[in-house]
Write a structure and sequence with these properties.
The structure is a single chain. This protein has 106 residues and is mostly helical. The protein is built from seven helices and no strands.
Length: 106
């Protein structure tokens, strides 16, 4: 019933199997490692890339499963731990990925 009430353009797109909305996303990196992940998070988290990569052995999956206590033992501040865990959760759900071209912050 919802399609009958929709606009003609939306009905045409729905019939063609295309999504109703188009979002132009930045290209994603093909392979994401620990350092690429932390660089994608930004906000100063990339400063801890060497410590984290050494602790998880360069395995992104182990970083995604890491808990706050493990990151705390590495000496990562609370704000950065919170950012890492938040973006790890988004990455697991498929809502976020690091961009291929790093952002230029001025």
């Amino acid at each position: 019933m919802a399609i009958a009430c929709a606009s003609p353009l939306r009905r045409l797109l729905a019939a063609a199997g295309a999504p109703a909305r188009s979002f132009h996303a930045q290209p994603y990196q093909a392979k994401v490692g620990v350092s690429e992940f932390l660089n994608g998070v930004g906000k100063g988290v990339e400063a801890h890339a060497a410590k984290v990569e050494e602790a998880v052995g360069g395995d992104l999956q182990r970083l995604l499963e890491a808990r706050t206590l493990r990151l705390k033992k590495l000496g990562i501040p609370c704000k950065h731990r919170k950012l890492i865990l938040s973006f790890a959760h988004k990455y697991r759900l498929g809502l976020w990925r690091p961009q291929a071209v790093p952002k230029i912050v001025q």
